[in-house]
């Protein structure tokens, strides 16, 4: 299995343009941006986070801001009324429980309002450079298609994938699979014909004949 994981990582690096260089930002920015990313596209998240942090950069700023102004600033993220209340609640909780600092420990991050395993993992990896394995819809879909795990939800996928993937790869798996899921292993009509992982992919083995027939008829 370890050899198979290495091949998967190498192929995903090829499509991503090389080994994933995990960038690191202020943990608070990572935390808030990840909350804003829920149920929206990356470009909307980036736009909303950029506008928000051009005005408010700290928990204290967001905690004391008028909710209506927060809603206006993050409108492009979608579900902005819910998210405005959530990021303000998180900011106030950080002030009350953690002296205004984002906690590093997973169990403390999960205490924050609206923070689940994926968000906590993103903060650990992208905010603190810690070993974690954030699982979003891309990671869940691709790891199941490849047969690395057999799970029904992202919440089930995280612990299963941690058992299947050597720890040295954890930090880059999220970045690699998100990129791979956007370029190759799409939710619908994945580009299996250009994927060198197809021969070892459970999804391709189950659907490959139909894909080849569609290509021939097309």
Q: Which key phrases capture this entry?
A:
mainly alpha; Endonuclease Iii, domain 2; Endonuclease III, domain 1; 12 helices; 63% helix; elongated
Topology of this protein?
Elements: H1 2-16, H2 27-36, H3 42-55, H4 59-64, H5 67-73, H6 80-98, H7 106-109, H8 117-128, H9 137-145, H10 154-164, H11 170-183, H12 202-217
Helix pairs in contact: 1-11, 2-3, 2-8, 5-6, 9-10, 9-11
CATH superfamily placement of the largest domain: Hypothetical protein, domain 2
Query: Averaged pLDDT, please?
Result: 91
Number of helices: 12
CATH architecture identity of the largest domain: Orthogonal Bundle
Give the biggest beta sheet.
Answer: none
Strand pairing plus helix content: what structural class?
mainly alpha
N-to-C series of helices and strands: HHHHHHHHHHHH
Strand content: under 5%
What fold name stands as the CATH topology of the largest domain?
Answer: Endonuclease III, domain 1
The portion of residues assigned to helices is 55-70%
Q: What would you note in describing this structure?
A:
The protein is an all-alpha fold and 218 residues long. The protein has two domains: 2-20 and 134-212, Endonuclease Iii, domain 2; 27-128, Hypothetical protein, domain 2 (Endonuclease III, domain 1), CATH 1.10.340.30. Helix content is 63%, strand content 0%. The chain is built from twelve helices and no strands. Helix 2 (27-36) crosses helix 3 (42-55) and helix 2 runs antiparallel to helix 8. The longest helix is centred in the middle third of the chain and has 19 residues, at 80-98. It is elongated and about 55 Å long. The model is unreliable at 213-218 (pLDDT under 50).
């Amino acid at each position: 299995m370890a050899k198979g994981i290495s091949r998967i990582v190498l192929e995903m690096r090829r499509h991503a343009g090389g080994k994933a260089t995990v960038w690191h930002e202020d943990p608070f920015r990572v935390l808030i941006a990840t909350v804003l990313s829920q149920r929206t596209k990356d470009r909307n998240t980036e736009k909303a986070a950029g506008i928000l942090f051009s005005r408010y950069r700290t928990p204290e700023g967001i905690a004391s801001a008028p909710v209506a102004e927060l809603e206006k600033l993050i409108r492009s993220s979608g579900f902005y009324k819910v998210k405005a209340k959530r990021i303000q609640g998180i900011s106030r909780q950080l002030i009350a429980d953690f002296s205004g600092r984002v906690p590093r420990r997973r169990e403390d991050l999960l205490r924050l309002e609206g923070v689940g395993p994926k968000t906590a993992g993103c903060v650990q990896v992208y905010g603190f450079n810690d070993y974690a394995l954030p699982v979003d819809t891309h990671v869940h879909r691709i790891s199941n298609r490849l047969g690395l795990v057999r799970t029904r939800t992202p919440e089930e996928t995280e612990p299963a994938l941690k058992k299947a993937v050597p720890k040295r790869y954890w930090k880059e798996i999220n970045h690699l699979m998100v990129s791979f899921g956007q370029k190759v292993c799409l939710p619908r009509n994945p580009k299996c014909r250009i994927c060198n992982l197809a021969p070892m992919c459970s999804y391709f083995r189950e659907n490959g004949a139909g894909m080849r027939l569609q290509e021939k008829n097309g």
